[in-house]
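Progress note, sequence design subtask.
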């Protein structure tokens, strides 16, 4: 009976250093993913502005195809093209204003989307029978903000 039994304590749970490593990894992942998510969210919201241009494009294309008008005459309020809309007149959460002038559609976002602008410019197709729409990169701040891609 002179021998003593040594009991070894069994470790349960995580050590403090293991928990600190997990928290550090989660912090790094959050620091990387939150800005990416923010840009993704803003791009999704900006899609509403791009979609809003269709209400101006369709009547402009129809007027041009029917031979009623030259591209430089395509303005808001004429040939079935809607009037200029401001934030108080439209039901969009993100659009500050939208209008067409001389064959260019300009949509301006509100402060939620950093007041970004999106400008589409009409040009005649090679056959002269239809319109081709291109992003005016020089006047579209959405390109530099990463909210839209240039269409050339």
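Output:
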């Amino acid at each position: 009976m002179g021998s003593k039994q040594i009991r070894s304590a069994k470790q349960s749970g995580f050590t403090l250093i293991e928990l600190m490593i997990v928290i550090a990894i989660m912090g790094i992942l959050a620091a990387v993913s939150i800005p990416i998510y923010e840009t993704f969210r803003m791009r999704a919201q900006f899609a509403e502005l791009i979609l809003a241009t269709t209400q101006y494009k369709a009547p402009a294309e129809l007027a041009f195809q029917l031979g009623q008008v030259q591209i430089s005459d395509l303005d808001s309020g004429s040939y079935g093209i809607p009037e200029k809309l401001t934030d108080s007149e439209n039901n969009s959460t993100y659009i500050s204003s939208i209008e067409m002038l001389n064959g260019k559609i300009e949509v301006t976002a509100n402060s939620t989307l950093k007041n970004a602008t999106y400008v589409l410019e009409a040009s005649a197709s090679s056959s002269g029978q239809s319109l081709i729409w291109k992003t005016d990169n020089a006047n579209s701040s959405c390109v530099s903000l990463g909210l839209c891609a240039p269409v050339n």
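The domain at 21-145 is CATH 3.30.700.10 (Glycoprotein, Type 4 Pilin). Work on this subtask will continue into the next period as scheduled.
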